[in-house]
Amino acid sequence: MKKVYFDNAATTQTDKDVAATVLEYMTNTFGNPGSVHAFGREARKAVDIAREQVAKLIGAQSSEIFFTSGGTESDNISLKGVAYANRNRGKHIITSAIEHHAVLEPCEALKKEGFDLTILPVDEFGRVSVETLKAAIRPDTILISVMFANNEVGTMQPIAEIGAIARERGIYFHTDAVQAVGNWPIDVKAMNIDLLTMSGHKFHAPKGIGALYVRKGVRIRSLQQGGGQERHMRPGTENVPGIVGLGMAAEKSLAEMPEKIDRIQKLRDRLLAGIMENVPEIKLNGHPTLRLPGNVNVSVIYIEGESLLLNLDMKGIAASSGSACTSGSLDPSHVLLAMGLDHATAHGSLRLSLSKMNTDEDVDYFLAEFPAIVARLRSMSPLYATRGSQAAQRCESASCKESECEIRGS
Fold this sequence. Notes:
Blueprint: E1 4-5, H1 16-27, H2 38-58, E2 65-68, H3 71-85, E3 92-96, H4 101-112, E4 116-120, H5 130-136, E5 141-145, H6 159-169, E6 172-176, E7 195-199, E8 210-214, H7 240-278, E9 282-284, E10 295-300, H8 305-314, E11 317-318, H9 334-338, H10 343-347, E12 349-353, H11 360-379, H12 382-385, H13 387-398
Parallel strand pairs: 1-11, 3-4, 3-5, 5-6, 6-7
Antiparallel strand pairs: 2-8, 7-8, 9-10, 10-12
Helix pairs in contact: 1-7, 2-7, 3-4, 7-11, 8-11
C-alpha cells in the first residue's frame, strides 16, 4: 500500500541535509555557545551564522532575530511582552477571529489582566476587512495581531495594508507567520511588520525550534529570567542543533522559493480540480486564489471529517480535518464557524496540505482512492438520505442562484 503524507500544515518531514547537519551538532560539534573554549566558540559561530540565515529569509537584520522553542512561545512573547511593556500607553489589543489558539489564548489571558480585546470578524473566505480594522482602532490601541496565512484554510491576509495602517497610527503590528515562512516570500520591512513568529518544523527544520523577529526599537519585555542568552529575551542554553537546522532550512527555503511555489501550486490545483470533478457536493473553504500554495481545504457535504480521516488513513493517506473531534471536542473548527459555515458543513471539512516532498504520484493515488471512500461513507450517512431538503434549505438561506451555487451538485 502506498503512503501519502498530505498533512504538512501540521508538520513537515525534516530535510535530509538539515537532519545531517543537526546530527553533526548533536554528536561532534556539541559545545555550549556560552563557553569560551574552542568547542564553545565553534558552537557560537554556528548560532551566529544561523541567525543571519533566518534574517535573510524574511528581510530582517540578524540582531532582530531571537531563537525560541517554536511558534507558541514566540506568539506568547510577542503578545504579552509588548502588552506589558506598553501598558502605560494603552491597554487595547486587536486580533482576528481565525487566529491560532497560540494567539487567541494569550489575548484572552491578557483580557483577564485588564487589557481590552477586539476580535475582528472575517468574510466568507476567511479574510479580515481593512476598513473594519481601521474602525476598530482606538487612541489606546497598542498592538494589532493578524496571522499571515491561516493554518486551516490557507487564506492569506492583507498583511502589507495592515502593516501600513499600524505604522501610520503608531501601533505595533505582530503577525503569526508560522504557515507562511519558508513557503511564501516575506519582507518584514516592506510590509511594516514589527514582530513576526515562525516555527521550523513547518518548513523542513526540526521540531522544537522557532524564532521571533522583533523590529529594532520595539518596546518589549522578556517573560523569563535566568540568563543572558538571546540578549535576555529568551534565557536558557541555546538549542544549537535545532538553531543550526533552522538556519539551514531557512537558507534552502529562500533558494528554492520560486520553483517550489510554482511546483506545489500546480500539484495543489490538480488535486483540487480532481476532487471537484470526481466527487459531487464539495465546498471549497478559504479564498480561491489568495491562499497558501500547498493548501486544499474542502467540506465534503453529509460526511464528518473524522470518518474521512480514518478511512483515508486505512489507505495510507495522512490528512487532517477542521473538526476538533480527534482532540476530544465535539465543536467544529472556530475558523470555519467564523467564516459562516454551519456546524454540519464545518464538521465535514478536510485539509490536505502539500510540501516540496509531495509528487504527482501522491496526487494520482489520492484521486484514485478518495471518490470510493466518499461514496461508501455517504451510503451510510443519514444526512445523505435527506440531502434534497437540506440542500434546498441551505440555498434558500443563502439566497443563491442554482447556476452560481458553490456546493457542486446541490
